[in-house]
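Support request from a user on the community tier.

User writes: "When I paste my structure tokens into the form, the page sometimes reloads and wipes my input. The last time it worked, I copied everything first. Here is what I submitted, just in case something in the input itself triggers the reload:"
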């Protein structure tokens, strides 16, 4: 079974990264019923931080997140196994397949933990750089917008001033003018 397929069966519930009993049974190539029987026979090996049973709400939320499983709708809610619980579960099965698959599962958990603790630096730096560039662009755009507003206000003031001057000239031009040329006196 491929490591990425196993990783796709790891879910986060109650702050733990867990695998569900029916997924583990499938990986170990046993029936879920047989797997759970072995766990119950060795229940002392599974404290609450190794294994817990899901609530209806938790399972409903998990199903709504498009978890595809072979859970056939039995009457019991599935058990969730943390990384330590998964390791312990391979000990209670004690088959060659369980041991082989357990190694793959532990590697999947280790890879997941490594990824969570060390996210790809290049992607983070790239996102930080893009955010910084976007911030600078927005600041420049607002500065340009404010400059345009100031320039526009100054131009409008100049236009208003020119209009006022034209209006005052028009008043002067609208006054009756003396006729040009020779005026002949009218004899009355």
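"...and here is what came back when it finally went through:"
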């Amino acid at each position: 079974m491929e490591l990425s397929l196993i990783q796709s069966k790891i879910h986060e519930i109650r702050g733990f990264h867990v695998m569900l009993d029916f997924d583990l049974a499938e990986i170990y190539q046993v029936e879920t019923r047989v797997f759970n029987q072995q766990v119950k026979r060795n229940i002392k090996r599974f404290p609450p931080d190794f294994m817990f049973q899901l609530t209806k709400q938790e399972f409903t939320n998990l199903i709504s997140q498009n978890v595809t499983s072979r859970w056939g709708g039995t009457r019991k809610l599935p058990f969730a196994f943390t990384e330590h619980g998964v390791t312990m579960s391979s000990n209670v099965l004690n088959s060659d397949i369980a041991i082989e698959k357990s190694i793959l599962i532990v590697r999947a958990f280790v890879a997941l933990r490594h990824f969570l603790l060390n996210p790809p630096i290049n992607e983070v730096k790239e996102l930080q750089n893009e955010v910084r560039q976007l911030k600078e662009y927005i600041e420049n755009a607002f500065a340009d917008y404010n400059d345009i507003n100031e320039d526009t206000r100054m131009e409008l003031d100049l236009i208003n001033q020119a209009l006022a001057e034209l209006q005052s000239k028009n008043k002067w031009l609208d006054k009756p003018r003396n006729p040009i040329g020779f005026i002949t006196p009218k004899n009355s």
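Agent notes: The reload is a front-end session timeout and is unrelated to the input. The chain has a mean pLDDT of 79. The helical segments are 3-8, 21-28, 32-41, 56-64, 83-93, 96-117, 121-174. Escalated to web team.
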